[in-house]
Amino acid sequence: MSEQISCTHCSTQLDLVGEEDFRVGGATGFAGMFLGGLNQLSERVLSLQMYRCPRCGHVEFFLPGA
Ligand SMILES: [Zn+2]
Known about the structure:
binds zinc ion, mainly beta, 1 helix, single chain, three-stranded antiparallel β-sheet
């Protein structure tokens, strides 16, 4: 990975933070308590590459391998 991505706010070059895992799909809060263990069935982990701007703190996410 040597792509240079510029911040959409201040045009500073973004730093690659790394790959972050996000849980998506599962029910949370009251609905999660109500459904109990069932909500884990619909939950999965999405890995995204995260870039942050050292100047303004803006972050961008990209799907790896795109
Ligand atoms: Zn910026």
